[in-house]
Amino acid sequence: METGLQQLLRELEQFGEGNDATISDRPRRMLNITRSTGELLGVLVRSAKARQVLEIGTSNGYSTLWLAEACRATGGQVHTVEFSEFKCQLARSNFERSGLGQQIILLQEDAGHVLAETEDDAYDLIFLDSERSEYLGWWPELRRILRPGGLLVVDNAVSHEAEMVGFMAQVKADPAFFCCVVPVGNGEFMATRAVREDAPVAPE
Questions:
Q1: What's 177's domain CATH number?
Q2: Bridge partner list, 151
Q3: How many structural domains compose the chain?
Q4: CB-based contacts of 202: which residues, under 8 Å, 6+ apart?
Q5: Which domain holds residue 55?
Q6: Is residue 7 part of a domain?
Q7: What's the whole-model pTM score?
Q8: Does some domain include residue 145?
Q9: Which InterPro entries match (predicted)?
Q10: Angle at 33 between CA 172 and CA 139, to 5 degrees
């Protein structure tokens, strides 16, 4: 990783920690992933050779930079969705500084609308770190736009397990998905969609 990007990530870590320690208003908190989660995302993108990556919940762009840095290695791109204008402004500034602008498309949009407008099997990897109360409602679209063999990663599976339990149960109940929880950072719920040849065949 380039020195300048390393410095920017450290700066954003310090900013996020300091900001969230003093601000209780959720829309103004950064709620960034941990560095260990960022490192995990980078490994996952590279190992899957993911070229089309979707992130829902940009915040100030900290997690996006981990995804984008890995996408630069795969020749891929990150589409990241954030509704807050305030956070989009922060993210744009950080993306400009990062040198990763070609790997990032920032959408200031309602995530539900973006999901509904996305083509089937569009993404190799989806990272979900947004409003957990929306996840169950988003699931049919998330399932549809994740390609066979693709990977869904969802943050806060351990730190906010009570808020995630219904969503995780829904995904686990789908016979086309194989799931686990990885105790990295705040806990990552991971689900991979079976490739078409391995998908369960419905009884006649």
A1: 3.40.50.150
A2: 125, 192
A3: 1
A4: none
A5: 33-193
A6: no
A7: 0.92
A8: yes
A9: SAM-dependent_MTases_sf, SAM_O-MeTrfase
A10: 30
Q: Compute the distance between CA of residue 29 and CA of residue 59 in angstroms, rounded to an integer.
A: 8
Residue 133, token pair as written in the block: 């109360």
Token couple for 46: 């590279």
Show the tokens assigned to 155: 């943050």
| Count of positions (residues) in the chain | 204
Largest CA distance in the chain: 59
pLDDT per residue as tens, the chain (204 positions):
888 999 999 999 998 889 878 988 887 888 899 999 999 999 999 999 999 999 999 999 999 999 999 999 999 999 999 999 999 999 999 999 999 999 999 999 999 999 999 999 999 999 999 999 999 999 999 999 999 999 999 999 999 999 999 999 999 999 999 999 999 999 999 999 998 645 454 454
In a domain, 94, yes or no: yes
Residue 159 DSSP SS3: coil
Q: Contacts for 98-102 with beta carbons within 8 Å, 24 or more apart?
A: 98/4, 98/5, 98/8, 98/61, 98/65, 98/68, 99/2, 99/4, 99/5, 100/5, 100/65, 100/68, 100/69, 100/72, 102/72, 102/77
Strand order in the sheet with 104-108: 104-108, 77-82, 52-56, 123-128, 146-154, 188-193, 177-182
Q: Is residue 6 part of a domain?
A: no
